[in-house]
Amino acid sequence: MNDLTNPLGFGGSGGRKFRVPVGAIAAVITASLFAGLAVWLMVVSDPLGGEPYARARIETSDTGYARVDIATVGVKSGTGELLPPPSDSKPEAGVPVEGPTGAEVAVALPVEADTALIETSPFGPLPRVAADGRRPLDVYARPVPGFVGASPKIAIVVGDLGLSQTGTQEALAKLPPEVTLGFAPYGASLDRWTAKARQDGHELLLQVPLEPFDYPDNDPGENTLLVGKDARQNVENLHRVMGRLTTYVGIVNYMGARFTSEAAALDPVMQEIALRGLLYLDDGSSPRSVAEQSAGKFKTAFARADLVIDAIPTPNEITGRLAQLEQIARTRGLAVGVASARPATLKALAGWTSGLDGRGITLVPITAVPQQN
């Protein structure tokens, strides 16, 4: 007998042949795959699984960051216990300035607005040149002692004050009076904050929102001056912002890369700033800015920042920018830096400014910077 004579599926006298259970094996494999998938879904939380993604390198620090150094700023404030306490008595209109021998010399610094420098408007008190020719730029400036001489000088402007109560309080507590403070027009209790800043001896600038290139995706805020608006509308919005504060020496742009690149839009605003006896500070963030040329047309007092100190807001980067600012001051005689009231920035500036005298550099307010007149 051979295989041809055996019935199908039988091995004849040689014994019974084994049949592979293909169906059972396939069922086991399928069940295993489903079980593995179920476990993966329970263990792995990835709602974006399968979506495109990007990787970014995160720098580490040997010293680490404190929680306060990464706090969020720029949030509109309400009322709260962090406001400067009200007082029934008026703050003294003077600050101490050290003389050449280390003795303190009293320097008058007005805390309240001079009524001769105020124009009443529907938008609030607007700055103006007094009938006798006095300008807010001069009256509200912090005097620089004559003994400063030819030593290298640095002016620092810290902005975004008035938005975060914590950030504003930290700036007033940590920064020396020679640092100029830039206030945003959107905060609460601005009169009290600015009065405290003046009492402490600081010059003030008003931050005016100007149109950036990616507006309105990136919106500087209410009453932003826009390239598409006519001159009358932009000057009116400038007045709306100006009426929020008093006792400031000038204007500094908030954003505004597009607006400051368009002379047709900027010129009427720059002319208005000059007519009201104010300084214009270009924060130096846009290489396309024509602010200096525009200021020249109207003889507007003008200054331009050399560096944004905290463009990269990490302690190492801020320290590096401050060292770079010192080098500019030693080379040119004077340098201007701008920054925001971030916790890490304030901490770095407090330590850095305390050692400037020992390094032969003088800290000066923004009005000490040479300007066009």
From TrEMBL:
Keywords: Membrane, Transmembrane, Transmembrane helix. It comes from the Bacteria. The chain crosses the membrane at residues 20-43. Residues 77-99 are annotated as: Disordered. One of its GO terms (biological process) is carbohydrate metabolic process. Coiled coil: none annotated. InterPro entries: Divergent_DAC, Glyco_hydro/deAcase_b/a-brl. This is Divergent polysaccharide deacetylase family protein. The lineage of its organism: Bacteria, Pseudomonadati, Pseudomonadota, Alphaproteobacteria, Hyphomicrobiales.
